[in-house]
Design goal:
Shape: globular
Helix content: 25-40%
Strand content: 25-35%
Distance between the termini: 10 Å
CATH architecture of the largest domain: 3-Layer(aba) Sandwich
Radius of gyration: 23 Å
Strand order of the largest sheet: 2-9-1-10-11-12
Amino acid sequence: MNKSQTLMIQGTASSAGKSIIVAALCRIFRQDGYRVAPFKAQNMALNSFVTKEGGEIGRAQVVQAEAAGIEPTVDMNPVLLKPALGTGCQIIVMGKVFKTVSTENYYTLGPSLIKTAEEALNRLRAEYDIVVIEGAGNPAEINLKDRDIVNMRIAKMADAPVILVGDIDKGGVFASLVGTLELLDEDERRYVKGFIINKFRGDLELLKDGLDILEKRTGKPVLGVVPYFRDIRIAQEDSVYLDERQDSPVKEDLDIAIIRLPHISNYDDFDPFEEGDCRVRYITQRFEFGNPHLIILPGTKSTVSDLEYLRHSGMVNSILRKAREGIPIVGICGGYQMLGQKILDPLGVESSEKEIDGFGLLDTVTEFIPEKSTRQVKARVILDHGLLSGTEGLELTGYEIHMGQTDSQENASAFRITETPEGVTDYGDGMLNESGAVLGTYMHGLFHNREFCRIFLNALRRRWGLPEAENNVTTEKTDEYDKLAKLVRENMDIPAIYRIMQDNT
């Protein structure tokens, strides 16, 4: 290829599988020797990540960059929307908080944001052979088309051929594909070069008549039918995945209950547990607790609101009762803030309440401030008891995304942050209570540190009299991306996709 190529993956609906198809294509193109990068002009997701430069972008573009074998940057997701309470959202532009606005006011920002997106895309095109672009929702949402900055407007800007993905698992895939084309303008339809049927289960022969009719009616080819899969472990973009996932099988081993908060974020923090011979359950109601070996309060975009939800639903009392029974509890980020004595919000960053009571399980107080902390960190474990038994001195990597600072009256930390992108540093993070059964930290990605996760899970097993496991977390991310690429190569016409990109130059 003599110049930068573009390819755009759009979908018939949210969660049709656009993100995972982009990740697969990024991996395939990289395997074929091309420099490839992902791009999504505007993403709406609570799962986010911090790049090396300290910018916040959607988790999906990080996965896609990993699949491409490159470092994620803010250019790959120049606009990130994080839904807040009511109908508002926090707008992240080029990795930094821009403002929090209502949905109505957000659309007035379109002209400036489309320029930002175009500049980011052009930088990627100057550096890479191929840029694989992801759309959002459905490109034919006729009530939003005039304000679009992520679907057909981007396809036209990049002169990118579009492949339309439909989710057959939810039913109505043929109607959704044909209906999407019908609602597109004539000049938009010419950008659509073919279809992908995603999440198929069953006998492909039974689908053939439908594929033939689809191609005849639209004049566009079906480029692949990708099977539904569960055995490839790749971080998901949003909490819709939690609606579809199944609890890990019941095993004679660790049972981990994760509280599914209304605004849960970065739940991929706990993906390593799925590989560690653990039963992992996301729960929303008191009767679902059972008798877990560990309870986790995850990150959240709205700490105060989710804490009030837990209080009104009775979950707070249930968690406190479990704590008194000796069940360990871990809080990450917003979950860590909840575990403390109080949350202070004098400037109304998250709530009209100036002071909110926490769980009282850690001797900490959190105060919200307008500035958002977003940084990658290196850290060291500095304690060696309870949940952290055997981990003292381990070096860790992770990242912080939080509004608010948490202080301990005892000034006792569980970890020391030793390095950020700005250089060597030395400050405390997190807290482990005196009994060693309640741990909190701001570090996302903590359990992705494989040796830490292995020792942590075995310490938990010893606590409950369970046998230790030799190898808890063994799967490399690169292996998972290769498995995904192999699956897609076997079920998609990759040579045809190359021809589509070449013919578009």
